[in-house]
Design brief:
The protein is an alpha/beta fold. The chain folds into 2 domains: 137 residues, Urease, subunit C, domain 1 (Roll), CATH 2.30.40.10; 314 residues, TIM Barrel (Alpha-Beta Barrel). Helix content is 33%, strand content 24%. The chain has 16 helices and 22 strands. The longest helix has 18 residues. The chain is globular and about 70 Å long. The termini are close together.
């Protein structure tokens, strides 16, 4: 059963002199009273409190709700200890909660128990899981995963058909499987099916031709997976979802073509949510990073990058998440077709959005807070305790210095991975303190928390609970 974890002796303090930022305000001067790991009161600046309550200064800083990375991958770092290194890394970036994906072809009962044993003594911050679905047993047990493990989101790879799935040890699925998965999810309730949208049958043909012609650049990688293959499968996923009354979440959207299809569909069906990643806001297919920049979806054209910013500005894109994958540099420094896909990203999300978004006039602070806190919390059933600074919410707080410039140095950030796409770049705007349930985990780039402090978040279709499997 799940037991509610209680953190005794949580610090009690009033946070003074900061400017509150959330999904409803770009900046409101406000003091916060923190008690028992919760937001206890909103106070007018300077309001008197009991002399026994400690004071902490946030002067000159912006107070964001604790950041949430809704898309990271466990299983690609150093097994077991990745829960320590990657949550340490997330805390450095101001993140108080992460949601990690698992991809398995076995029933998730044993997977969950095993991974919880690894995580519960190692995580610095709070965490939750998504399960990927790949066989008939997963559909059959979907309701049990929600009820027993508090997992309310399930990934489906539309590209894992035939050999594309089997090389990962998966059965390989088809549209009939997607139909049944969405039907089952809709019957349970507020469940999200995360659809990786990619038409692999088209990709396979184009990729074979490009490889045969000697293509070896990131532009070749992008051309092997053209925008049509993302857009067409997005339309198919949305059509299925609408027909079956299911809710879908399209991760890592990367092309104008796919985003335009989402805009059209939302006029008729509103249970579609969309995510993009920082690298689709900053890197193009013309990059000379070769294997170091290999991801799926690939880096796209400059026009696609512009489209992602437009999607953030007009609200078509709901969430920005990292797709964090803690690969080692050695797995990337290879010829294009042999290099591993994916790279680390959580710790630099906020600096990228502040440097490239806020400071360049593309995004408001409120919009940044929305895509990194409010929206992921609501979509993935960790609200109202997470993603908000409302009274009664967990005292998850990210203190931000908008004017702090810092050169990205992977060695300082703590991931198992040993590089960053932004390595050596000077970014303006960084988190300077990460507070989880009232306890400081990171301050001024130094981790102060302890491994094992992070709670597993048992999500329900009504409201989330914190706990651990016993």
């Amino acid at each position: 059963m799940f037991l509610k974890e209680t953190r005794m002796n949580a610090p009690e303090f009033v946070l003074r002199g900061g400017t509150l930022v959330d999904a409803s305000t770009d900046g409101t001067p406000m003091d916060l009273l923190i008690q028992n790991g919760k937001i206890s009161a909103h106070l007018a600046p300077g309001t008197h409190v009991d002399a026994s309550i400690a004071e902490q200064s946030a002067k000159g800083l912006h107070i964001f709700p604790g950041l949430i990375d809704a898309h990271i991958h466990f299983g690609f770092g150093e097994k077991i200890t990745e829960y320590e290194t990657e949550t340490f890394y997330a805390a450095q970036g101001g993140f108080t909660t992460v949601l990690g994906y698992f991809l398995n072809n076995e029933a998730y009962a044993d997977v969950f128990k095993r991974e919880q044993e690894y995580a519960r003594t190692r995580a610095y911050i709070d965490y939750a899981f998504h399960f990927s679905t790949a066989n008939e047993q997963h559909i059959h047990e979907l309701a049990d995963y929600v009820k027993t493990y508090g997992v309310t989101s399930f990934k489906y790879f539309m590209n894992f058909k035939g050999e594309e799935g089997r090389y990962l040890g998966l059965d390989g699925t088809d549209d009939g499987y997607l139909f049944d998965l969405l039907s089952k999810a809709a019957s349970i309730g507020d469940v999200k099916v995360v659809c990786h949208t990619e038409n692999i049958e088209i990709v396979n043909r184009i990729r074979t031709r490009i490889q045969a012609s000697g293509g070896s650049t990131l532009k070749d990688w992008s051309h092997a997976k053209p925008a049509f293959t993302e857009a067409e499968s997005s339309v198919r996923a949305m059509y299925f979802a609408e027909h079956l009354g299911a809710q879908i979440y399209i991760p890592h959207i990367s092309t104008r073509m796919a985003l335009d299809e989402v805009r059209k569909w939302r006029g008729r069906y509103d249970k579609v949510f969309v995510e993009t990643c920082p690298h689709y806001l900053t890197h193009t297919e013309d990059s000379d990073l070769v294997g170091m920049g290999k991801a799926n979806p690939p880096f796209r054209s400059a026009d696609d990058v512009a489209a992602m910013w437009e999607g953030l500005q007009d609200g078509t894109i709901d969430v920005v998440a990292s797709d964090h994958c803690p690969r080692k540099r050695a797995t990337k420094e290879k010829p294009l077709w042999l290099a591993s896909q994916g790279f680390p990203g959580t710790a630099t999300i906020l600096p990228v959005l502040l440097h490239e978004g806020y400071h360049k006039g593309r995004l408001s602070l409120r919009r940044i807070a929305e895509v990194l806190t409010h929206a992921p919390a609501k979509i993935f059933n960790v609200a109202p305790h997470k993603g908000s600074l409302a009274i009664g919410a967990d005292a998850d707080i990210t203190l931000v210095d908008l004017n702090l410039s810092r050169v990205v140095n992977p060695a300082e950030l703590g991931s198992y991975s040993d590089y960053s796409l932004y390595e050596g770049q000077n970014l303006k705007g960084w988190p300077v303190q990460t507070i989880v349930r009232g306890t400081t985990v990171m301050s001024k780039g130094k981790i102060q928390g302890q491994p094992g402090f992070g709670n597993y978040i048992f999500r329900s279709l009504s409201e989330p609970k914190e706990g651990a499997l016993s």
